[in-house]
Amino acid sequence: MTRAPLLPLLARGPLVLAAGAHDALSAKLAEEAGFDAIWASGFGISAVQAVPDANILTLTETLEAVRHIVDAVRIPVVADCDNGYGNAINVMRTVGEFERAGAAGICIEDNDFPKRCSFYAGVRRDLVAVDEHARKIQAATAARRDPAFAVIARTEALIAGLGVEEALARARAYAAAGADAVLVHSKARDFGELASFAAAWDGPVPLVAVPTTYPGVTAGELSERGFRMAIFANQALRAAIVAMREALGEIRRSGRAATVEDRIAPLEEVYALVGVPELKANEERFLFAGSEPPRAVILAAGFEPQLMPLIQDRPKTMLEVKGRTILDRQVTALHACGVQDITVVRGYQKDRVAAAGVRFVDNDRFAETGELYSLLRAREALGGPFLFLYGDIIFEPAILARLLASRADVALVVDRAFHDAYRAGLAPAGGPFDLVVTETPPNGRRFVAPESGSRVVRIGPEVAPGEAHGEFIGMAMFSAAGAATLLDVHDELAGGRAEGLEHASMTQILQALIDRGQPVTAVDIHQGWMEIDSFEDYRRAWAELAR
Ligand code: SPV
Ligand code: MG
């Protein structure tokens, strides 16, 4: 499918104004100025390589320039394909290449190969026979995949001094061969020559003009005479030459750039044109907050008697759901998000824990210690940004991607569905749950959290379901600074022989961080995860998970 078609514009509405572009940036400026279409100019594309417009550049070089132009704009791009790079057979390939590149159409002129720019004086100028060019046009229309891909035939009869009659005969033949429009080029100093051509034009297709040597003609006059498109082929290039020459000359003369500063585009304008704002937004979305990806620690040491005998011969993380263990699902999701350094803390049935591409550390005192103690067994992994996951949760990988995009020093994934369900009277079975109170409570049926996330003010199973704003799902990320604070607080508590530190849960240490003023941020989700805490959870996981 032609990406941005030209033919509908030619068929209706006011005169189509096309601007010549020689690269992506000039095309963007033309689009910004409000032009309807781009003319990917052979003259300009050659000029910016500092070579004459004389089939010196190859099809491939022109195609590459056209690809850049097409990628930079949304409006239709007409590729100036000179004489089609050869005979009718070459033209067929030319059409295929430029159509695939996303051009809205091509223009092929009846210059012989190698062509000479219409304006060069004192050079050889030969046209191919009218039949030969008509066959090239036929071949072009046969080769296009999409009938909306425009084939514009161009005659150089007036340029070659062959007169209006010859130009008319050629234009008629090209229209009869299937051209969608005819470009009739003139290097006369006024519009008179073209006006007489147009007055005699009786062909069935629209006319295109390139008012370079007769720049005084107006859009109104062109329309009146039956033209449907005007191409301002090289004015942007010529403006750039003047501007560059002036600025360079001035800097060279004065020896400093300050003298031209008020005449050149501010850097911010260049940034905007080349998409720096989009670059920034994408960095926020897709790159890790620091320079390095975080490490991951999976807490899989615990033993939960209520799950016996399900976990008689393996820890929870090794339970299989539809042929894959919970641990394998977690490791795959982490790898897919670019987190390669994964430590699994084993305890109960540690010899049964297996997963490729991870390292293991052991909490052999799992029966009498808590999650924090397990996490600290992986202390080596906590020396920079890291995330931790409970070993019994199954989650959509998008949740992990969301957490990784957080810029917070301590970010927790919080499921807001708990709040909604509880308000709707659907108090979840089981528990106690790791519940969360945030600074910005969800408010009513629709809720959008602040972009930077909302601050968590309380967390843990002690939060009553009725006051909770969400549920902590057991997945959190610490920046390098957040990790350092966590270790500081831990070591301070350990140094003070804080009671119960060995038994502390992750929510207890998180609450300790909050109490010391460390901002802890909620990354909001709405469902998309499950934990295996009971037989019923396990049965539901089987029922709901696809392989
Ligand atoms: C071009 O811009 O390359 C054209 C128009 O073909 S002209 O230079 O006027 O021939
Ligand atoms: Mg050209």
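The chain has three domains: 7-233, 241-274, 284-544.
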